[in-house]
Design brief:
The structure holds three protein chains of three kinds.
Chain A (H helix, E strand, L loop, with lengths): L8 H9 L5 H14 L6 E4 L1 H11 L12 E5 L26 H8 L3 E6 L33 H8 L5 E6 L5 H7 L2 E4 L19 E6 L2 H11 L29 E5 L9 H16 L3 E5 L7 H16 L18 H12 L2 H14 L3 H26 L2 E5 L17 H4 L5 H6 L3 E8 L5 E8 L4 H15 L10
Chain B lengths: L1 E12 L38 H13 L3 E2 L2 E2 L2 E4 L9 E4 L6 E10 L2 E14 L3 E4 L3 E5 L6 E7 L6 H18 L11 E11 L8 E6 L2 H20 L7 E6 L4 E4 L12 E2 L6 E2 L2 H10 L4 H11 L3 H8 L2 H10 L5 H18 L11 H12 L5 H14 L3 H7 L8 H14 L1 H8 L3 H14 L6 H14 L1
Parallel strand pairs in B: 12-13
Antiparallel strand pairs in B: 1-10, 1-11, 2-6, 3-16, 4-5, 4-15, 6-7, 7-10, 8-9, 11-12, 13-14
Chain C lengths: L5 H10 L6 H23 L30 H5 L5 E2 L2 E5 L5
Antiparallel strand pairs in C: 1-2
Helix pairs in contact in C: 1-2
Classes of the chains: A alpha/beta, B alpha+beta, C mainly alpha.
Chain lengths: 483, 471, 98
């Protein structure tokens, strides 16, 4: 079996340019690796026939960019025309979209090749990869552990070097948390940087699409490719998309960096905190000015998420009624029964629980007591972040409170999936860009991730710091070697 | 004495080219499911658009109903499950309606009354459902068609006032040109809230009536409901808050099945649509393009001396009114109004035509009005000419000549005719001398008959009197 | 927040248009109560009444299209994922009680 997909992007690209290899070689290798890593359960649907066809078609085209011919995995909540999109739910088990998400069009315009749709927590609800209708996803660093979620399969595919690129979505940490658990680079860009058109909505005001990659360089390239204004998404920004790779490996001396005290509290695993302290020392030695700061209202992040995300979800998932698309029950007597059975059969427990909470917080007087108040606190929290960015170029902290844990640990704990996202949710609330970068391993050789948070539409500053750290730390992050 | 309290919620479909939150075509009347986008189907992953023309129309309606226009608006989601609601929520304006605190002035027996309008807001229509024996069939052409909902305060106190309110509202929207406002076709829908209470006590429990299919049935439904509720109270039966449906076969209201959670709409702001702002400049731009409102036209027409019957008939047909407005300044407005509301409307009715279907070329009708005004032709001749003018079009004078209807206005030849008829009717001359008016009329008739209607009656009359007096 | 009663769980399930078995009601009762206890922190938070709500973290505003229209989906596309169709319509089984 070939192993081109473990080479650096520039090496693969150069081989393509010199015609030493063809896109088809990369595609076939990706499918071989999927087969070899079948137990990881990273994919729900493979795009084999079309991918091979597209790869062959690319042989007739000049290699015209660094992303040309590169295999990419797409999270299964991003719609792909004529390629089944399930959201890892029984509800959409046979859903065959009739249009492409904007990011999918952009991927195709860059001549990247979609290998398949990755497994995930059902409707992106969960943080372990265990709520999928299509079975648990495993962490390639340790098959007894969770990969994190909800973009589990996308992080796993990149970590196991099945594809160098993947797209994920992040509503409360769903790109950054699995990236951290799997030792890959995951970016949740600014809200509005990447069009959400075609992302199956979970919580509209918190949902983001972003790149998951092996390296910061690849991440910067892919983000540039998928960013930009989209007339199909009125919340997408018309701000110019920078050429992010120009900002890599620049001088970081003099950068003003804040560390929110909340991100270094006792609830964070000690090994993770110590690793973070090492990084802080390292950055100081490299000339960064680091200060510990307070951001207001962070302690409300989880209840805010429970109110806002779940309320929006209860509305966004109301369209699954067995009429226009999706699962439908086979026996019923009344319209009410038709609806209720269809939805109860189609959704898993995590989703049901969240839909009930979401309906509850909007019901009657609760809309004022909880929802409206939550939107006000959200505004306050954002103000506090904005104040911080008047003083600092970046904020840093751990991505997660812990490293990946054993499968099945928290299955009956309704709160676990929320508390896993303690440090990631605030950035969805604020819409600020944040990247998870691998910064080392714990005693068990499980990856630890750090979060680099930038000001609105300042992804380039994040990439500068991330690229310098990546180069300095020089970690071996290919997970497959251990299995 | 029980007093009825009535409030009306009216949904009106707007005539924009595109839908409100998608770029699907707003052409509901074509074949089923032929104007449908992924957005209208509520597909996973879709995000709403916003059609500026709908905001323009919302501003125009708010201005016409004297409402305050919101400076900053967002949209809200109204959540409920129903097969005709593709996304499981309707995008509407709960918190920030485009218009608020307006009114409509109605006039009854010469007394004017303002019915206050609480709010006007923009929202999307649902699918059209067709119910068969075994299934409900969904037509998504209507899904996403823009609506404005106009909610009155409970200021209406009788069925008559309600009908006047709906008629006035309909007339105003028709003049704005933003809706077809056809209640029979569903482009206007009236839901009525009715309660009754004893004078000096708080308002009674309100009952909502839906599915009223004509303006006159608004009155019928209200009267039925007032009677039903009054009877209930008389018999000490408690009135429950419920939704009832008007049944046009029995002309009664019938209770609809209600679900306990049916009214918990769980509104929250629509996160997918950014805020919108309406400034003075935008409002002014819309204001400048607004047509003259019927209430203003009515005053103008009254001053011109047009009778009430004619005014009502002209104002109730927007196309005809536009025509009248264009023409009336160049000719006798009274004669024109008589022609339009008399012979032309009967021609339309007889042939089942709309005003826009008939060929009324301005010069032709102008020629006819002038001829009638100058008494070049009799009104009887006018009646004969009009249908031909409508069906054949063409130039008035050419038509008159073709029909041999040209008037004889030549005094010499007319004098010959007058003398001849007088010679033949000596007894009429005697009558005339005896001071009997009848004689003149009889002689006039004979002369006109002898001229086969072509004689200029005014001139004949003048000549006849002259001759008779000189005898 | 106290544990939710079976009726309360049933009510929220009803709002979400779900039906639960007795066993599920038991399980969800405990889990929902845990989450609602968290959410009560929002109810208890001290925040000025006049604070502005943040609906979505975007500075976009006043974005429209000018009454443009696009072609309709084709019949095959409209019906591709539909559960049931009849003629040119998407069909919903008639509820027996309607």
């Amino acid at each position: 079996m070939t192993n081109y997909l473990s080479l650096s992007l520039d090496e693969i690209h150069s081989k393509l340019v010199k015609k030493e290899i063809k896109p088809l070689d990369l595609v076939l290798e990706a499918f071989d690796k999927i087969e070899k890593n079948e137990k990881l359960n990273a994919f729900i649907t493979l795009n084999k026939e079309s991918a091979i066809e597209e790869a062959k078609a690319l042989e007739r085209i000049e290699v015209n960019g660094l992303l040309f011919g590169m295999p990419i995995a797409i999270k299964d909540n991003i719609v792909t025309k004529n390629l089944r999109t399930t959201c890892a739910s029984c509800m959409l088990e046979n859903f065959d979209p009739i249009y492409n998400a904007t990011v999918v069009e952009k991927i195709k315009a860059n001549h990247m090749i979609i290998i398949g749709k990755t497994n995930m927590d059902e409707f992106a609800m969960g943080s372990t990869g265990e709520t999928s209708y299509f079975g648990d996803i495993l962490n390639p660093w340790d098959l007894t552990k969770v990969p994190g979620g909800s973009s589990s399969g996308s992080a796993v595919a990149v970590s196991a070097r099945i594809t160098p690129f993947a797209l994920g979505s992040d509503t409360g940490g769903s790109i950054r948390q699995p990236s951290s658990f799997c030792g890959v680079v995951g970016m949740k860009p600014t809200y509005g940087r990447v069009s959400r058109y075609g992302l199956v909505a979970f919580a509209s005001s918190l949902d983001h699409i972003g790149p998951i990659t092996r390296t910061v360089y690849e991440n910067a390239l892919l983000l540039e490719a998928i960013s930009g204004e989209d007339s199909n998404d009125l919340t997408s920004s018309n701000k110019v998309v920078p050429h992010y790779v120009d900002y890599l490996n620049k001088e970081i001396s003099g950068l003003k960096i804040g560390v929110p005290n909340y991100y270094m509290s006792d609830v964070i695993n000690e090994e993770v905190r110590n690793k973070m302290k090492e990084i802080i020392t390292l950055l100081e030695s490299m000339g960064c000015n680091i200060e510990f700061i307070d951001i207001d209202y962070l302690e409300y992040a989880i209840p805010l998420y429970q109110v806002i995300a779940l309320a929006e979800a209860s509305s966004n998932l109301a369209r699954y009624d067995g009429i226009k698309f999706g699962h439908v029950t086979s026996s019923y007597q009344t319209l009410e029964e038709f609806y209720k059975k269809t939805r109860s059969e189609g959704f898993g427990n995590e989703v049901k629980r969240r839909l009930m909470i979401g309906s509850y917080v909007l019901s009657g007087k609760n809309a004022n007591i909880y929802y409206e108040k939550a939107l006000k606190i959200r505004g306050k929290m954002v103000d506090s972040f904005k104040d911080a960015f008047k003083k600092y170029d970046l904020l840093i902290g751990p991505t997660n409170t812990d490293v990946a844990y054993l499968l099945g640990t928290k299955q009956d704990d309704a709160l676990k999936s929320f508390y896993d996202d303690l440090l990631t949710i605030p950035l969805n609330m604020a819409g600020l860009p944040a990247l998870s970068l691998p910064i080392g391993f714990n005693h068990d050789h499980m990856p630890i991730g750090m979060q680099i948070i930038g000001d609105y539409f300042k992804e380039e500053t994040i990439y500068t710091l991330a690229s310098v750290l990546e180069k300095t730390l020089n970690l071996d992050l290919e997970s497959g070697k251990k299995c | 004495m029980l007093i009825p309290t009535i409030g009306i919620e009216i949904h009106v479909e707007l005539k924009s080219k595109g839908k409100v939150f998608s770029k699907g075509k707003n052409e509901f009347s074509t074949y089923p499911n032929t104007n449908v986008t992924v957005l209208d189907l509520g597909y996973p992953g879709i995000l709403p658009q916003l059609n500026k023309e709908v905001i323009n129309m919302g501003i125009a309606a708010s201005l016409a109903f004297h409402a305050e226009i919101a400076k900053e608006m967002h949209f809200d989601r109204k959540n409920y499950f129903y097969p005709d609601l593709p996304k499981g929520y309707q995008i509407t304006q709960q918190k920030t309606p485009i218009g608020s605190n307006g009114y409509i002035e109605i006039e009854r027996n010469g007394v004017k009354k303002k019915i206050r309008i609480e709010r006007l807001h923009i929202e999307e229509d649902t699918c059209k459902s067709i119910h068969t024996e075994h299934a409900t069939l969904l037509n998504f052409n209507r899904a996403g068609v823009p609506l404005i909902e106009i909610v009155s305060k409970p200021d209406i106190e009788s069925a008559e006032e309600a009908v006047l309110y709906v008629e006035k509202l309909r007339e105003t929207l028709l003049y704005l040109g933003i809706s077809d406002v056809k209640i029979e076709e569903g482009s206007m829908r009236c839901d009525v809230n009715v309660s009754v209470h004893e004078d000096g006590t708080p308002f009674g429990t309100k009952v909502e009536i839906k599915n009223i299919g004509s303006i006159s049935n608004v009155g019928v439904a209200i009267n039925y409901e007032i009677k039903r509720q009054t009877e209930m109270l008389k018999n000490n039966v408690k009135i429950v808050e419920e939704t009832r449906r008007f049944d046009d076969k029995t002309m009664t209201t019938i209770a609809m099945r209600t679900k306990e959670t049916g009214n918990d709409y769980r509104y929250f702001p629509e996160p997918d649509l950014p805020y919108i702002h309406v400034n003075e400049a935008w409002i002014k731009k819309i204001e400048e393009k607004m047509p003259i409102m019927p209430e203003v036209l009515r005053e103008i027409y009254q001053k011109l001396g047009i009778n009430e019957k004619n005014i009502n008939a002209i104002l109730s047909n927007k196309k005809m009114c536009d025509f009248y407005e264009e023409m009336r300044k160049n000719m006798n407005p009274i004669i024109l109004s008589n022609l339009l509301t008399g012979d032309i409307i009967s021609f339309m009715n007889k042939n089942s035509l709309e005003f826009e279907d008939i060929k009324l070329e301005k010069n032709n009708l102008g020629g006819l009005v002038e001829a009638l005004e100058r008494n070049d032709i009799s009104s009887k001749q006018g009646k004969e000419i009009l249908p031909i003018l409508i069906t054949e079009g063409g130039d008035y004078n050419t038509l008159i000549n073709k029909l041999g209807m040209k008037q004889i206005s030549d005094a010499d030849s007319l004098l010959e005719l007058v003398s001849k008829v007088i010679d033949e009717n000596p007894e009429s001359v005697i009558d005339f001398k005896a001071g009997k008016d009848r004689a003149t009329k009889y002689l006039m008739g004979q002369i006109m008959k002898a001229s086969r209607g072509q004689a200029n009656p005014a001139l004949v009359n003048k000549l006849l009197i002259e001759v008779l007096e000189n005898l | 927040m106290q544990g939710l009663t079976s009726e309360e769980v049933e009510h929220v399930a009803d709002l979400a248009n779900l039906v639960l078995t007795e066993e599920e009601k038991q399980k969800f009762s405990r889990q929902l109560s845990d989450i609602l206890a968290d959410i009560d922190k929002i109810g208890a938070a001290n925040i000025e009444e006049e604070s502005k709500i943040l609906i979505a973290p975007t500075e976009n505003h006043d974005l429209y299209h000018n009454d443009e229209t696009v072609e309709s989906l084709k019949k095959e596309e409209i019906e591709k994922n539909a559960n049931k169709t009849s003629g040119d319509y998407i069909s919903v089984p008639k509820a027996l009680d309607d």
